[in-house]
Amino acid sequence: MNKHVLRAAAATAGVLALTGALTACGGSGQGGDDDKTVTLVTHDSFAVSKPVLKKFTERTGYTVKVLRGGDAGAAVNQAVLNKGNPQGDVFFGVDNTLLSRALGKGVFEPYKADGLGHVPAELQLDKERNRVTPVDSGEICVNYDRGWFEKRDRTPPDSLDDLADPEYKNLLVTPNAATSSPGLGFLLATVDEYGDSGWEDYWKKLRANGVEVVDGWEQAYNERFSGSAGGKGKGDRPLVVSYASSPPAEVLGKKPLPAEAPTGIAKRTCFQQTEFAGLLEGARNAEGGRALLDYMLSRTFQEDLPLQMFVNPAREDAELPEVFTKYGRSTGDAATMDPARIDEHRERWIKSWTSIVVK
User: How confident is the model at residue 3 (pLDDT cuts 50, 70, 90)?
Assistant: First the structure.
């Protein structure tokens, strides 16, 4: 599996950090090496199978070079800094928590990708101008370690209110909202639930109840969460902010498949996330970039996503593997928020959150 099999898509998104140079997978340098190379700039959690990339080359004649830029927020910030002189042709990984920032800075060139007719309107957050193309969606949710709770004959939490109950003291770990998109999504879920007048008090309760904050998703899930197979269960926190689609990764390769995944979802803790790709303004191979965007909405690419990045395809007609549908069902009750509202308040919310929880 990919180093970050569970996806955390955009997982560790350095929202405030303007960090480092992008590193290349299979090469270095800016833009495509020639007119038959398409450079995809993305985050470290991006994954696609080799046969799917090979099919793209067979269909179009273009070869894809992937430039990974750390976590999603850092990659987005780097794209903003490089506006007009991008390090590649297409960017993948900006999500709805960071979308307005990228659009407001003119990072993307409009392009209406083939296949958009199969994408639900609610995912097309820039449908008037088509500067970005929705590629996948998922729900950021608190996951719990079933075995931990069963051994102690205790009931796992189901809601945000539950997490502040003394019964769950010192059990929850979350990625930092300032450095992780799951962490930011979880913060936004609390803002949506408790409003401008109540979310800060809620986080004061969580802090008093022993919530642990770490830099990113991978540290939270693989190092601190007791239910992570990747971390071999060495963590001591049975509650972690992750994804509704995380449980399928915990059963992959197991024979026979269990009746249920060893991890579960606290259904009333979730925030809806959508990831987008876009043609970078000033792309050296704009034609190849448009071809790649079309391909990312093809059923071939979309049906590869669930077991590569553990996300839901944007296309409604994409077929999902049974292991994904059985163990990674969406809650259908995730909080949402207008990207413009997020953009208007994000930095203030993060600053306030940091002063309450981290300092």
Answer: very low
Tell me which residue has tokens 């729900």: 139
Neighbouring C-beta atoms of residue 241, cutoff 10 Å: 30
Choose the weakest-confidence range: 111-120, 172-181, 280-289: 172-181
Residues 2, 234, 146: CA angle, nearest 5 degrees: 85
Count CB-CB contacts under 10 A for residue 281.
Answer: 19
Angle ∠(308,185,307) on CA atoms, nearest 5:
10
Segment among 9-13, 167-171, 338-342 with least mean pLDDT: 9-13
Question: What is the rounded distance in angstroms from the CA atom of residue 97 to the CA atom of residue 99?
Answer: 6
Q: Residue 231: what pLDDT?
A: 62
Helices and strands (DSSP H and E) totals, the chain? 12, 11
Q: Closest by alpha carbon to 134, among 272, 34, 282, 251?
A: 272
Kindly state the tokens that stand for 103.
Answer: 């659009």
- Give the integer Cα–Cα distance in Å for 104 and 129: 13
pLDDT in tens, 298-336: 999 999 999 998 899 999 999 999 999 889 877 778 999
Contact 260, 172 (CB under 8 A): no
- Beta-carbon count within 10 A of 340 CB: 13
Q: How far apart are CA 68 and CA 78, in angstroms?
A: 11
3-state secondary structure labels for all residues of 216-273? CHHHHHHHHECCCCCCCCCCCECEEEEECCCHHHHCCCCCCCCCCCCEEEEEEEEEEE
User: Could you tell me if 216 and 210 are in contact, meaning their C-beta atoms sit under 8 angstroms apart?
Assistant: no
Distance CA 100, CA 338 (A): 10
Encoded tokens for 331? 């809650």
Q: How far apart are CA 322 and CA 344, in angstroms?
A: 40
pTM: 0.84
Q: How far apart are CA 16 and CA 25, in angstroms?
A: 25
Q: What's the distance, CA 252 to chain centroid?
A: 20
Is 42 within 8 Å of 69 (Cβ atoms)? yes
DSSP label at 106? T
CA distance 65 to 28: 9
In the block, residue with structure tokens 């800060």: 200
Tokens at residue 149, please?
A: 């709770």
